[in-house]
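User: quick one
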Amino acid sequence: MDQQPTADEPTRSRSTLDDAELFEDPSFLLARANSISLAAGNTALAGFGLRVRSYAVLTLACRPTCATQRELSELLRLDPSQIVSLVDNLQSRGLVCRKTDPSDRRAKIVTATDLGREVRAAAALSARDAQASVFDRLPAEERSHFFELLRDIALPDGSDAH
Amino acid sequence: MDQQPTADEPTRSRSTLDDAELFEDPSFLLARANSISLAAGNTALAGFGLRVRSYAVLTLACRPTCATQRELSELLRLDPSQIVSLVDNLQSRGLVCRKTDPSDRRAKIVTATDLGREVRAAAALSARDAQASVFDRLPAEERSHFFELLRDIALPDGSDAH
DNA sequence: TATTGTTATACTCTATAACTATA
DNA sequence: TATAGTTATAGAGTATAACAATA
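Assistant: Done. Structure below.
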């Protein structure tokens, strides 16, 4: 329960951010940090015709073991129908291709083309710079620990990619 | 640079999440964690006719020192025009009201009504449960440290709300 | 009967520009 | 002239339901 204002008149005095329950709220902090990171990422990727979402799909398509669209939707927490349009876009630009899975003809495996791999590699450098500008706010010796904890929240138990 | 597949055929064998550069990418982890947190938050708040965004505005409007719409837009990293519709919605439901700032008649201070404070307090309990389900994945003794680091990333330097 | 990808639709979120009233 | 709020618009992101092909 918040305190009530002591006067009838609305008060505003301090120009700096002051006490607010919201700024102690982990979900809010997570959302705000993500907003900062997303903006930096999209700016860094814009020159490559990518956004954070399409970059993520392209990156997964570069893996040696490529994923079906269904798997991409689970990994990225996007609806299968959203994957369709992201892949459509990347495919129309020759960065990825769809191949029917021989063992399940319903499924389509998304694989990066050589061009897609080149574009992703170049974009990754720019993305990494953008990231640095966001996470450099953390004490250097704490960064990797923070990332581990973030991983515990972000990824399901099974996914151990150390 | 990613490894290339060793065969011409697309390969897919492991059903569990396997190695992927993306899963080491802090920005991606942040985005995925936020997606989980946001979904849980929106579900928890749905019963109160709120979403994470409108809950944040309402919470700031409950502070003893209320903010102008301009300040809300900076705190929440939303465009001023987005604040307009969020406040319109809350105001139409009698949860907040706009008051012209006597010291600057251009500015409007957003203040929660008594009803708004009641709704927020009830919603906060539900939101807190949802949060717990997300952040309980962290070791208990590390949680507050994680939140501090998250805060370093999320909030500008000046905002010290300890 | 269940699942993969697809299409379609609607709603929320993000970003921009232009307008008004005040400063 | 600059700033706070507003309106309008377009594009990106989110969520749902229904359908064809395949399992």
